[in-house]
Structure formats: structure tokens, C-alpha cells
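pls design
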């Protein structure tokens, strides 16, 4: 049975122009998804009205007004977007103080462009969308892009624990092994497919003259202060070492996790408690506690076969 709509966003009727397909979720249950511009959204979730209708959202995002000081943090889920978004906010503020709202308040999937009208500049957006959904003006006006990567074994591990906790996209009985096989067999041309996501970003960055900083989660863990310094210089707010160390301290996983519970999530899609749950271990190499030897070999072979010669030089341990 369809769940009643509880959010503030209208979800219009499905028409013959829409692409709706039935896909297998991890663990084999079938679900219907709506596909708009390479993004795949579960209809049962969409119908709750807690996020905007992508058929309205994506075209309006593409036409959104942007500025050269806008910052877009773009990453596949679980690469550390919460961490980097908060650090950027503190750098700009010039104080190791948490922003009043969670990073979800500026997550492009969760808001219509008009909801950003009161955000002071420089605005720091974040998204898991592939570049086709981004504002055209972000490229034209040379906004700043921060592309965040993480080794895919830790991404999948983190994603699994996220899904178990939230029961999002799978039922609670789904095992790790079912989840991993689902990931390995997702060859759809949509943003949830990590290979497709990276391919689209590589195409986008190589065919546009962008102001872009590429970072990865592992380097942030190895030397947070030097990454913070790069970040600060890139966004045009260089800060001294004392302040960077204060930001590092304030942005430790446990402190951020606690702070999340105290502040407005900034969206109807998730509440503060659910945002806080996204902070888990925050380490490099937790995949070793998850993958069997055979699964690791299968994953390595899959990576080799699907990376299309791309070498993102991931660090699997530090
Ligand atoms: P784990 O599940 O491996 O712990 P995102 O912010 O993109 O949703 O990524 C979530 C991942 O980043 C989770 O990874 C989370 O614990 C980790 N993370 C979040 N904040 C962090 C922080 N301040 N320091 C280190 N890792 C952090």
C-alpha cells in the first residue's frame, strides 16, 4: 500500500513521459524507481513528499542563478561530505564553530533553488548528483568545485552500515553478502552506480574549464591540517595554522556527531538524529572487517574490469 504523503513537496502524477522501472533491491525485493537525468529515486520514498519532485527540481537547478564564489562539494555517498562541508563553513566563518544547520540544509537533492534565497554568500552546496543536474551558471561563472573521493571498499562498507541503520533501499534482513552482490551487479547508467558516477565526473572535468579541487578522504585522515590549508586557499579564505588546528579538533567525528543532534537538520528528508547516525567509525580500512578474502578478490577483479583504464590511486589503508 502507498504511504500517505507527509512532506511539504507536491509529487505530481506519473505520466507516459516518465521513465519508471522496476529494479531489484539488495536482498532481491523489487521496487519501482523514477529515473530523471541519470538519477534514480524510489517511488515509495519520493511519494512521501519529503524531497522535491525531481521532474521539477532538476530542470530548475540547471537554471539556478550562481556566483563565482559559490562552492559545490560533489561526491558519491559516504566519501566524507559532512566533514568537508563543516570544515568549509568554519574556514569561511573564521571560527571553529558549527554552522547553525546541518549540511543537508544545502544538499541539492533536498531543496528547490528558491529555498536558498536567504543563504549568505559564499554559499556551500553539496550533492551526489552527476554533473548533468548542476546549474549551468556554475560552469559559466566559474564557481568552485570540490570533488571528494574515497576508496570504494570503504565506501561500500560505509554504505551497507548506513542502509542497515536506516533500512533505506533494503529490508532489515539483508545480509552484507547480498548487499555486496547487489552493488557488484548494478550496471545501470545512473548515479548510484559508482563507476558511472565517476565516469560522468571525469567527462565533465575534462571537457570544461573548471575551478576544481580534488580531495580524498584518506589524505584528510592522514594530514587533516594540510588538507584544511589547501581547502582554505582554494576557497579564497587562507587561515593560520592555529585556526586550522582548532577546526580539525572541532570537526573530529565524535564532536560532530554530538553537535548534529543539537541542530536543525535543515530538511524534511531526515531529522537530526538520523543525520547524527551517519557518523560511524570514520576510519580508513574498515572494509577489512567486512569483506571475506573471496569477496575482496571478487571486488578487485570487478574494479579492474570496470575502471576503463582510470586510475584514481586509492589508498586502502594508511
Ligand atoms: P564510515 O561509515 O566509514 O564511518 P558522508 O558524510 O559523505 O555521508 O560520509 C559518511 C562517512 O564519513 C562515514 O564513514 C562517517 O563516519 C565519515 N565521517 C563523517 N564525519 C567524519 C569526521 N568528522 N571525521 C572522519 N570521518 C567522518
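designed seq:
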Amino acid at each position: 500500500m502507498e504511504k500517505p504523503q507527509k512532506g511539504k513537496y507536491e509529487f505530481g502524477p506519473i505520466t507516459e513521459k516518465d521513465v519508471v522501472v522496476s529494479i531489484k533491491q539488495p536482498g532481491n525485493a523489487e521496487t519501482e524507481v523514477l529515473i530523471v537525468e541519470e538519477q534514480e529515486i524510489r517511488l515509495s520514498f519520493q511519494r512521501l513528499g519529503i524531497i522535491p519532485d525531481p521532474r521539477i527540481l532538476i530542470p530548475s537547478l540547471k537554471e539556478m542563478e550562481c556566483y563565482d564564489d559559490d562552492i559545490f562539494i560533489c561526491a558519491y555517498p559516504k566519501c566524507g561530505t559532512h566533514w568537508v562541508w563543516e570544515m568549509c563553513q568554519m574556514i569561511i566563518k573564521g571560527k571553529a564553530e558549527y554552522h547553525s544547520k546541518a549540511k543537508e540544509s544545502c544538499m541539492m537533492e533536498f531543496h528547490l533553488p528558491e529555498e536558498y534565497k536567504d543563504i549568505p554568500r559564499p554559499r556551500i552546496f553539496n550533492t551526489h548528483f552527476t554533473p548533468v543536474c548542476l546549474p549551468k551558471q556554475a560552469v559559466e561563472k566559474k564557481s568552485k568545485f570540490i570533488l571528494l573521493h574515497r576508496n570504494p571498499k570503504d565506501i561500500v562498507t560505509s554504505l551497507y552500515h548506513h542502509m542497515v541503520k536506516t533500512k533505506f533501499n533494503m529490508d532489515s534482513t539483508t545480509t552484507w553478502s547480498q548487499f555486496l552482490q547487489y552493488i557488484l551487479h548494478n550496471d545501470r547508467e545512473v548515479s548510484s552506480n559508482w563507476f558511472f558516477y565517476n565516469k560522468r565526473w571525469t567527462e565533465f572535468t575534462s571537457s570544461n574549464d573548471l575551478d576544481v579541487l580534488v580531495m580524498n578522504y584518506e589524505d584528510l585522515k592522514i594530514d587533516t591540517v594540510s588538507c584544511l590549508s589547501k581547502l582554505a586557499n582554494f576557497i579564497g579564505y587562507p587561515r593560520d595554522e592555529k585556526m586550522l588546528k582548532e577546526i580539525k579538533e572541532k570537526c573530529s567525528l565524535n564532536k560532530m556527531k554530538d553537535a548534529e543532534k543539537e541542530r536543525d537538520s535543515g530538511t524534511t528528508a531526515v531529522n537530526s538524529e538520523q543525520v547524527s547516525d551517519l557518523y560511524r567509525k570514520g576510519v580508513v580500512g574498515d572494509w577489512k572487517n567486512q569483506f571475506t578474502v573471496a569477496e575482496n578478490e571478487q571486488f578487485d577483479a570487478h574494479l579492474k574490469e570496470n575502471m576503463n583504464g582510470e586510475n584514481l590511486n586509492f589508498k586502502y589503508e594508511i
